[in-house]
Amino acid sequence: MVFDFFRRAGTGGALPAAPEAKASATGRVVAWGVAGSGRVAWSARDTATLTRIGFTGNPVGFRCVKLVAEAAAAVPLLCQDADCRYEAHPMLELIRRPNTLQGRAELLESLYGQMLLSGNGYLEAVGGDAGLLPGELHVLRSDRMSIVPGADGWPVAYDYTVGARRHRFDMTGAPDPICHIRSFHPQDDHYGLSPMQAAAVAVDVHNSASAWSKALLDNAARPSGAIVYKGADGQGQLSADQYDRLVSEMEMHHQGARNAGRPMLLEGGLDWKPMGFSPSDMEFQKTKEAAAREIALAFGVPPMLLGIPGDATYANYQEAHRAFYRLTVLPLATRVTAAISHWLSGFAGAVVELRPDLDQIPALAMERDQQWKRVGEAAFLSDAEKRSLLGLPPLAGAE
Asked: Is 4 within the bounds of a domain?
């Protein structure tokens, strides 16, 4: 009571009101349960290992990541707000030339690739302030980034670590210097789940099958055949001279591409026993193809586009290509561009939207023509309603 008396003395007898702060009721629990306030929340997976075995060391994983990242980076973008669509805008110019070393395609391909390999993408803003867009944008490697959660569970900083050196990005001010885009992870509050982690078992099976096939070739575990000797008196061993002569003749007349298919003349009790792959060896190849399909499934790439045999899920290549854009490329590009435009709007001080321009994607030309035809023939709709259905902003001066 004495302390309350002195506290009220300078405020006219009333306690000062605490500033209102809105936050999730579970934020403090998450921050305490994961890493504690102000401490780094480490990712639960080894991104470097998954990248090494699934991207740089596996042709199916490499092609899946490149196919999705390159296709998403090449999707045309449009810029608009609630009033109009812009042909030229500072945000479009920033995306077109984000820094001195990269263009739009290189930056976005790197960002999409990081998300596919680790489930997380990080963009750094260089320069910029409230009301002013950044001067440059850079993609940061996901395996070097770590989140520092605050007392409410939200990130208060990001640490970028290379060797023994570390740089901390402060996230307590506005606008944020880092844009963190992550995929959905049901068991992690701070990091996303990568398709590479979901396909890790299939990647191991595919790599093991490839290593087995190479070892089979290196060690000659399955020779093309065997020469069996049976002497007239039942003796099963050649003399030293006979053995040397047989080896010399095999090397001179029956080995190498030049002698492929040449018939062999055997004498003196020699017999040729051909050898081939056993049924278990043939099943090993089918296991490898099944693992390749599982890797493609995790990344959302139709196996037909990767040249994987034995897959007839899609009627033809054109349908597979359309499904690839509809189910994989466009959802990824839409989510990433929405996050980038929301982040950059904090710098610009105005809400501007970046999103894929569906009218300029060749793979969706047939669907676009059908939609425009249906909307154009709808006589009960006004021109303003038709433009709204097609995703176009209202005309200037229209009611």
From this structure: no
